[in-house]
Design goal:
about 0% strand, mainly alpha, homodimer, about 525 residues, elongated, 17 helices
Chain lengths: ~525, ~525
């Protein structure tokens, strides 16, 4: 007993939480109860009209089926139901007349007509573009069969069809009246909010990625949920995942929103709901780059912290400016404001340019000249042992990774410092290539799982070469991160363009504070 | 008239195409017609039982609603319908007894109970984990209201409830019998096929990306459908897009598949359908890298063709090996075979290793030493004009791009060849940095849209610096491509792991040709 009491309390708590997170759900439930109550009342009170109560089931059915969360969905279902009933009623009456003419073959005609209609309607329903009318086809079939069967028994085809239609109309109007007059919930508004939320989600993911990357935050173990693309509560991951996953939700909402009459801030007759989806699509195109940036964090080939620190301020600046642009666009959509004459991308472009210039000046950090086949200055790679720093070895081992399985490193060698031999080259100020910062020390290492093949017995020289290969890959990962970030900035233009198209078509208002211009 | 004849012919042609592409749809439609025919027959012949034909609508309704494309969906809907009807019937009978006790307040009790039940059920339905039972809640509401209303009028609560339940059972059993006995269509099989298709899609996308990249295939104009993530018939794009979009389809199919009894090749009782989704998720994690690779093709900062050609064979090898692994895994899933003792990743790891080594030896191609602040050898960047090749200028202009808008290049400068000044550095064999291959010549250029700001008036020196910045970015894009490809290979391990988990749990058979082992 105590157990079931605990269960009850936990269920009650969940229900309470659900209501608190979205009070509209409570309102909607109450509205549904009200609509059902009203339709029952009508049927009670109309007792004198025998017919009505006999077919009361149709009215109840209609209310339960048509009463949907948003106005758009209710309208679209109501339309489907009405159209399906009307056309099926017409067809059924026609076939019924014919079947009577058939005389003693009447039953055969009815049964065959049911088979043919059932097959054809089902087949038509399966056609992809018919998807939104799926419900209408079902209603058509139900109505057709019902009128044929019950009409045959009562010989009142017309009466059956008309009563049925009246009751459905009654149910539908009660549903619509309750749903629209009391605290209406609009699909268009939901779509609007969803798009804004997507902007904020990507902004958060972007910031998280960039600041995580420059601060060398690492995943000690990549959650397997991320590896198999399941929902996870990692904030960076869930930010972009929810944007990717919202495609189908957006499609559903836009399908309902176009049914809704002008209302609230959406005062136009043919409001451009599809443009919201387009903006969201352009944002998704940006989100793919954020995903790739996150991939750099998830990858276990990681650039050394020293090198990241060199670009820290520039990367951070681009990340912050990019997130700011996204948030500003999100807010503009929320407030339904036009862009105005300020170039919203100015700051992020400046930041990206600064990053590019820095990359240009410092691109030697991305490469490891030791193994260049064109030679690497006076000191050749034949004598690297002179510069071994044995105490770096243990740190370097932390770098072993999933990714390295791919490049089959069997023995981990030694980091070499460039500092000792840059005199002739004019090099100065290059940090050791393989040293990691402290917060990476606890990382678990997944050693290569492939057993050493006979022809790849680890030799000293082999291993050394592998090490350099790895070093080079690890530094290039920083280059990858910066390129992806710049590409992200480039894709922002596309988001801004889609936004401008939307703001034109939807007649957004001019920004509140006009920028001071000459 | 001729017009409508043409319309009719085009509709008929589409219908024919639909049937040819998936003959199961024709079979399913015929089955639906058959089920409707059978239920109508039953109701006709049972005419003596007055009750049955009076409530015939329930049987018809049940057939139309429960008869779904796959067995799993039919079973799950049938279960929902049965459970909803039973529990609502029980509750309604209880409340009806109570309302009779209430005497003159009976109507009030009934109406209030309808309101409360309606609200509570609707609220419960909105709870996220209740989503699969949404249909059950609807049935519950319909049944409850119907029994209350019609029971009150006829005073035959029990009779109404029982008849209704019997007719629903009749409809459900006709649906199930027809659907399972005649050419059953299994959701599990669909899921299986979908996962295999996803593997093939990613393999095609990967091959397309890599071979497109090394052959310098370019988008003259990136289709706006890609930029806003809409469906497009670009093969590379649609390959990975369909994999991303299939999430919701997979979720739906797995929800139905777990309802299906063991059948065909899926002989276990609790067949691990969720593992198929997991494999697909791991594949999706790989697909993100393919998307990023495609991003490199879409980006308008492009590496020069010469440099790509240097890595051509290695990149191509990794791409081909990666696609081969994906296809092999896909085929193994299709044939339900285990991996066997051969290391499926051996070849692609070797290829990735070769690529990495080449990258290591040639990473000077990724950078532009001219602007290194640490100096770039004997020749300093102060005197680059000596090496101008004016005829390269026009070619270089092709490189202008969307991405460059981000780095605000106002004046396009001149490519510089390294060849002329590599004597002291030991450089040899480096192609000119900015020259593009012929198939890029016709590219449309989107010039920066941002008007020059007062403080960024293009100066000669500025522009030159920009040029180098651009050159550096363009070469780094090749580095990005290779890093992403290596990361893709690393992520393959994860797909193989998920596949092994699946093959264990689902008891896949050992491969047909056992590898020759000692």
């Amino acid at each position: 007993f105590a157990d079931s009491w605990k269960n009850f309390r936990s269920v009650a708590f969940k229900a309470w939480e659900l209501g608190r997170s979205d009070p509209r759900k409570i309102v909607f439930s109450a509205k549904m109860g009200l609509a059902l109550m009203l339709i029952s009342l009508l049927i009670f009170f109309k007792k004198p009209v025998e017919e009505l109560s006999k077919y009361s089931v149709w009215a109840i059915l209609t209310v339960v089926v048509v009463f949907e969360f948003s106005i758009g969905a209710t309208l679209s279902k109501g339309f489907n139901r009405g159209l399906g009933t009307l056309s099926a009623g017409g067809l059924a009456l026609g076939i019924a007349e014919l079947s009577v003419l058939a005389g003693e073959w009447e039953e055969v005609v009815i049964i065959i007509s049911i088979f043919i209609t059932g097959s054809c309607m089902t087949y038509a329903k399966l056609y992809p573009t018919m998807k939104p009318y799926e419900y209408g086809f079902r209603v058509f079939l139900i109505t057709y069969c019902f009128i044929m069967v019950s009409g045959y028994q009562t010989r009142e085809f017309v009466n059956t069809a008309v009563t049925r239609f009246l009751l459905i109309a009654l149910g539908a109007s009660v549903s619509l009246a309750v749903n629209i007059c009391i605290y209406p919930i609009w699909a268009g508004e939901d779509l609007h909010i969803l798009v804004v939320k997507n902007f904020m989600g990507i902004a958060t993911s972007l910031e998280g990625c960039v600041s995580g990357y420059v601060n060398c935050v690492e995943y000690k173990r990549v959650p397997s949920k991320i590896l198999t693309y399941q929902a996870s509560d990692d904030p960076v991951y869930s930010g972009y995942r929810s944007v990717l996953e919202s495609t189908s939700q957006e499609d559903a909402l836009v399908g309902f929103a176009i049914w809704e009459p002008p209302h609230g801030p959406y005062k136009m007759c043919k409001y451009p709901w599809r443009n919201y989806v387009k903006v969201s699509g352009a944002l998704r195109h940006c989100a793919f780059m954020v995903m790739a940036l996150h991939g750099c964090m998830l990858s276990e080939i990681q650039a050394p912290a020293e090198k990241r620190r060199v670009f820290q301020s520039e990367l951070q600046r681009v990340g912050t400016a990019g997130a700011k642009v996204l948030r500003e666009l999100g807010n503009k959509i929320k407030r339904m404001e036009k862009l105005g004459s300020v170039d919203i991308l100015y700051e992020v472009h400046e930041a990206a340019e600064a990053l590019q210039k820095k990359v240009d000046r410092k691109s030697y950090l991305f490469v490891n000249s030791e193994s260049w086949e064109i030679g690497n200055g006076p000191k050749q790679m034949k004598e690297p042992h002179v510069f071994l720093k044995i105490d770096d070895k243990s740190k370097f081992q932390e770098n072993m990774s999933l990714s390295q399985v791919a490049i089959d490193i069997n023995l981990i060698p030694i980091s070499k410092s460039w500092d000792d031999r840059n005199s002739n080259m004019g090099f100065k100020n290059i940090g050791p290539a393989g040293v990691r910062s402290e917060n990476m020390l606890e990382k678990q290492i997944s050693w290569p799982t492939r057993p050493p093949k006979a022809d790849t017995v680890p030799e000293e020289e082999d291993a050394e070469e592998e090490s350099k290969t790895y070093e080079s890959a690890s530094a290039l990962s920083l280059a990858t991160f910066t390129s992806l970030l710049v590409e992200f900035v480039a894709r922002l233009q596309n988001v801004v363009d889609s936004f401008e198209e939307l703001s034109e078509k939807a007649n957004f208002k001019e920004p509140v504070e006009p920028p001071a211009e000459v």
